[in-house]
Amino acid sequence: MSEKSCLFPTYARFPITFVKGEGSRLWDDQGNEYLDMMSGLAVSNLGHAPESVKQKVKLQLDQLWHVSNLFTIPNQEKLASLLTNISCADAVFFCNSGAEANEAAIKLARRYKQKVLSENKYEIITFKQSFHGRTLATLTATGQEKIQDGFLPLPDGFVYAEYNNSADVEKHINGKTCAVMLEMVQGEGGVIPADATFVKEISDLCKKHDLLLIVDEIQTGLGRTGKWFAYEHYGIEPDIISVAKGLGSGLPIGAMLGKGKLIEAFNPGSHATTFGGNPVITAAAIATIQTMTELFLPERAMELGEWMMGQLTDRLKDNPIVKEVRGKGLMIGIECVHPVVEIIKETHDAGLLVVGAGPNVIRLLPNLLVEKEDLQKAIDVICTKLEQHKTTWKEAVQ
Ligand SMILES: *Cc1c(COP(=O)(O)O)cnc(C)c1O
Prior knowledge:
Blueprint (H helix, E strand, L loop, with lengths): L17 E5 L2 E4 L4 E4 L2 H4 L8 H13 L10 H12 L5 E5 L2 H19 L6 E5 L8 H6 L3 H4 L9 E4 L4 H7 L4 E6 L2 E2 L5 E2 L2 H14 L2 E5 L23 E4 L10 E5 L20 H16 L2 H20 L5 E7 L2 E6 L4 H9 L2 E2 L1 E2 L4 E4 L7 H21 L1 H4 L1
Parallel strand pairs: 3-15, 5-6, 5-7, 7-10, 10-11
Antiparallel strand pairs: 1-2, 2-3, 4-12, 8-9, 11-12, 13-14, 14-17, 16-17
The structure holds pyridoxal-5'-phosphate.
The site of pyridoxal-5'-phosphate has 15 residues, from helix 4.
């Protein structure tokens, strides 16, 4: 492709063009095969082109594509029922992306305080190094300056606390605070799991100060970390949960889930989106959840994740350029002492797809149906590359 691109240059794209995907494999336009350990960023959680989802989407495509949310959409009712069965939530709002799910969460939290409780509260405590999306409100919720750069003025009502530091959260609580919003494992921030005590203390603080607890499960949700939702690892119950990435197996859908007490905060007209939960997209999500349930994929992610993390920890423990291997389930990060973009390019050349998380972390997000042998192959390539870089990075270590 030598022609000038007509796209805004919003992405630093790798020079690979994929033309076909199946299971854990992708093929580029040169006929090269790749083992995919990023799943389109935690999206293709059943692998590429999963048969069970494809069948249901095709059936729906033959029936009806779109009608508008002014009518009952049976697939939406069914999907909402499935989502409330696998979570602690009681009601669902469908949208088209993660950022939109978080927008809905922010709006619901504010509206509950202002309309149901008649309190003038709007401030949301989020965290440094968090990631919540790219709309104006969600990039403001995101505690990373580089993501906010050049977009002033930002909407009011977000303050940032130190992650894994509940004392710092407490310091930020005041008469305007309405909610705390966090990821259970910071994804884009570098695969940083929340500490168990931190999450428990946050949950207690929310109860004590009557704050809503919003958990952003857009990357961690739907089995990725070894539970349907990562909050389940912590024995807490959030008030609001946002999901998106893995929900539609690659078709765009987001959802905001909330507890029963929040239902009356929204009424007809208070929030909406044209495409949200359309018949085709919800068919894909129903099939995704049904497949995950039938095949016990959260449990599978837990088992395979523990095995993989053990292998990586063991093989990398004496490598001086590796700082830490961490994660939950099949969401694993390898933190290095140096930016990893070169290593990521080298793994591409070796037919393996992995992705960064922040500058120094190699992130692994295999699909949840991945074969153990394929995980083994990925481990071998990554450990070999990191072994080779031991000498080239020597100066960085010293
Ligand atoms: C990807 C992601 C988002 C944003 O989702 P989009 O679909 O890109 O808008 C928000 N929060 C977290 C934790 C994410 O990983």
